[in-house]
Sequence to fold (541 residues):
Amino acid sequence: MVKLFSPVIIFFLFLNLHGQAGSYSYFYRISFTAKRSRVSDYKPAQLISERAIARRQREGVAIIDNCDIPVSTEDIRMLTDLGLTLHSTSRWMNSALMKNNSYIDPAEILKLPNTASVELVKKPVTKGISGKKLEFTFSDAGISQYDRPLSMLNGYALHDQDLKGRGILIAVLDGGFDNAEEIASLNELRERNGIKGTHDFVRNQNDVYNYSTHGTAVLSVLAGKLPYVIAGTSPDADFLLLTTEDVSSEFPCEEDYWTAGAEYADSAGADIINSSLGYATFDDPSFNYSFNDLDGKTSFVTKAAEIAASKGIIVVNSAGNERSKPWIRINCPADGKSVLATGAVDEQGKISAFSSAGPSYDRRIKPDIVALGVDVPVQTSDYSTGTVNGTSFSCPVISGITACLMQSVPKAKNADIIKVIKESADRFQNPDSLYGYGLPDMGRALASLQDLYTRIPDEIFAMGPNPTTGEFEIIFREHNESIIIEIFNATGSLIWKYTNTSFAGRTLKVDELANREQGLYLIRIKTPAGASTEKIIKLKN
Fold:
């Protein structure tokens, strides 16, 4: 397995992760008043990876800021001197998740200098709600529609241009990835070393191939390839597999696990976070959120998701499966103002009975969009392939196709990507609290995003770079549903032809010359607007 870990991230993990969760009964979230060091004390490469630096530069935000400074080791030492054990810290929230086998009065912790607040976020309970947490049921219904998640979004408009997520890093935050190291639909992902890192933030170990197949199913929606069974929405993307959910219980400390995973994803340079998770009600009802808390700025996990978005990460979160349950509404962090919350529809585009309802408490449109979440093809073992229901699975449908859109315009900012996705949706002019803005059309989104970042040529098309070492880009003056591209060598022989009768967008990258000899070639392009031929020089590789 190829790892993304730089010495920076190895240090980050060592600083933040100690011990396992399972044997401790009490967890405390302790927030500090201030950081004990300054931004000027660090170079960016000491805190985040080169890939993260590049993403922040693209986004036009500070390379590092106060959120990136680690929690003080002095503050942690004073807590451990009290007998507490460190589980994780959050540099974003300037907090520590500490644990103990017996109850400690928060007032004793508050006596420590630089301590701002103490919250008990896990304690023993006699009966909880999480007995079947993250479980799902297989069905054979709809298995013939293996590519319906993709086709409903007009996703082939991107895939047919070889926009399949290549070069995009998706962090999958989930409850476990049991069997993901062996199932057939992920063979190609593993063979190309597309899993760039793994970590379990619940148990503080690198092994994630255990405890739950929920993450495995989600990953198969993203990257799965199984002929006539599964067609992942981003089969060429790379992935971080991060376990942040304790499937044995439901407590607010899992928001801290989620935050630790998101900070890891940020440091490693992830472009997208896929979170098929949510928080609202807990095993101990005294921890439950209220509808008032769904305002995009109250819950710990929503604050963390908003910081992730501010760093240039697109956070895609399931809306929740609560509409047929007492809670009814979306979960956190789906309420985040910058979070792309995804509901679930069936293959006719009808909202599912379980898909959580919006709006947010402050009356924003939620969920933001919908995708197929009924009879979604997944694989969880070599013997378990079928279809499943849940916004847990409409979420990776959107995360994956968003990676493909991101690939098409590498310099695009996350706010622009989210904007064009929403504007392409079928209910954009008339959104509501069930569908949000509706079902996106990724062909329209592609065209809109390229229009934002592309200089439109005066001619039928423009082409460059010229000369080229292999790959070149064609920019069209008009949006053309039909294009024909032909390449001729210097003797006039046709060596390559590309035809697309459902072309979307304004640009097309061509790499056909990459393995050709150096020399002069002719590029002929035919569109409904006309035809033209241009010369291009291929240089030696």
About this structure: The first strand starts at residue 26 and ends at 32.
